[in-house]
């Protein structure tokens, strides 16, 4: 059970931290001449509390580091520390190296490690843009070890989280292709027309709601606030019921 919870955390935070997406781009009418440019990618570290069905289950950390030039790295760590998660000692570490080129986040490599008392899995993936192919090796089902043809704009879950921060504008429709762990899926999001007040701990944010609209009975909702480089909240709902809920507790820029 807790393994499934941690998997969903990874795909949504997914940060993709989730969730844990035709080509990665935003669809909308032509912007007004004075439309603001999207925020530039900046290094940061952010901490989240992780809830499941309203109960505190653990914590998560998201970090983005500039490796130099066009290359960056995004890391997501999730640790279950309450209830059944504490008994298992389950934790997940994911890292993606990517290029920030032409207003696109282009993944280059990915590693995912899941550890626990009764569980240990490791998966490595390479996005070969010269061959236009992505492939993973490690602890995956056989059918997910086959190569996937890459399209311009393809991203994994962590990069889609960052792209939503970059692309979210009131009333906009966002469309991405998610390519991760041997799977490729289309993800479509709609951004609310107006911001709403979001209370996270002792902090309050004026944030835009960004909701995935093609997930069937599973909903993933992001709240994005101006000037904050990571979602202030990520909520996953299943069949209308709240499930995984990541709530930002702290973030800061890093050199």
Number of helices: 3
Structural class: mainly beta
Report the strand count: 16
Range of strand content: over 45%
Largest sheet: 16 strands, antiparallel
Poorly predicted parts? 1-35
The pLDDT mean sits at 82
Q: State the shape.
A: globular
Number of domains: 1
Helicity, in percent? 10-25%
Textual characterization of the structure:
By secondary structure, the chain is mostly beta strands. It has one domain (2-29, 40-253). It is 11% helix and 54% strand. It is built from three helices and 16 strands. The chain has a 16-stranded antiparallel β-sheet that branches. Strand 5 (91-101) and strand 6 (104-116) form a beta hairpin. The N and C termini lie far apart (39 Å). 38% of the residues are buried.
Write the layout of secondary structure elements.
Elements: H1 2-12, E1 25-27, E2 44-52, E3 55-68, E4 71-80, H2 84-88, E5 91-101, E6 104-116, E7 119-128, E8 133-138, E9 148-149, H3 157-167, E10 173-180, E11 183-191, E12 196-200, E13 203-212, E14 218-225, E15 233-238, E16 241-253
Antiparallel strand pairs: 1-10, 2-3, 2-16, 3-4, 4-5, 5-6, 6-7, 7-8, 8-9, 10-11, 11-13, 12-13, 13-14, 14-15, 15-16
Describe the structure concisely.
The protein is 11% helix and 54% strand.
């Amino acid at each position: 059970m807790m393994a499934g919870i941690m998997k969903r955390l990874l795909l949504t935070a997914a940060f993709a931290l989730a969730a844990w997406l035709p080509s990665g781009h935003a669809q909308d009418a032509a912007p007004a001449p004075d439309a603001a440019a999207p925020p530039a990618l900046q290094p940061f570290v952010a901490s989240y509390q992780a809830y499941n069905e309203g109960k505190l289950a653990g914590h998560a950390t998201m970090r983005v580091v500039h490796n130099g030039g066009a290359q960056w790295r995004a890391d997501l760590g999730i640790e279950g520390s309450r209830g059944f998660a504490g008994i298992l000692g389950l934790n997940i570490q994911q890292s993606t190296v990517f290029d920030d080129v032409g207003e696109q986040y282009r993944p280059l490599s990915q590693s995912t490690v899941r550890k626990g008392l009764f569980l240990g899995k490791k998966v490595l993936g390479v996005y070969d843009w010269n061959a236009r192919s992505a492939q993973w090796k490690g602890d995956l089902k056989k059918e997910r070890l086959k190569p996937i043809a890459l399209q311009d704009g393809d991203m994994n879950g962590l990069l889609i989280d960052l792209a939503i921060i970059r692309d979210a504008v009131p009333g906009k429709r966002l469309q991405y292709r998610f390519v991760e762990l041997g799977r490729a899926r289309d993800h479509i999001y709609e951004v609310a027309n107006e911001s709403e007040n979001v209370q996270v701990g002792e902090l309050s944010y004026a944030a835009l709601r960004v909701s995935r609209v093609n997930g069937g009975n599973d909903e993933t909702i992001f709240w994005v606030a101006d000037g904050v480089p990571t979602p202030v909240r990520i909520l996953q709902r299943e069949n209308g019921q709240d499930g995984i809920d990541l709530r930002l507790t702290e973030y800061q820029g890093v050199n």
